[in-house]
């Protein structure tokens, strides 16, 4: 087993893969940017976005109640 030959071949393979990745990134027009740090968890919403979602969901549930013909909440 020639360890130096294996290391050389792996280095060549690495160089080939690096070249291939770079060419694919260039072809993608920058769309495939390298992510340095992944953000975990939920995306936070600002106050205005939460209010918009709240109003949209109120309309949604009101429409659902009307379609179902069920009485209002608490009645």
What does this structure look like?
The mean pLDDT is 85. It is rod-shaped, with a radius of gyration of 28 Å. It has a domain at 1-28. The protein is built from two helices and no strands. 63% of the residues lie in helices and 0% in strands. The protein has 75 residues and is mainly α.
Secondary-structure-based class equals mainly alpha
Mean pLDDT comes to 85
- Annotation field: number of helices: 2
Order of helices and strands: HH
Overall form: rod-shaped
Query: Helicity range of the residues?
Result: 55-70%
Quick rundown:
63% of the residues lie in helices and 0% in strands. The chain is mainly α and 75 residues long.
Topology:
Elements: H1 3-27, H2 47-68
Keywords:
2 helices; 75 residues; mainly alpha
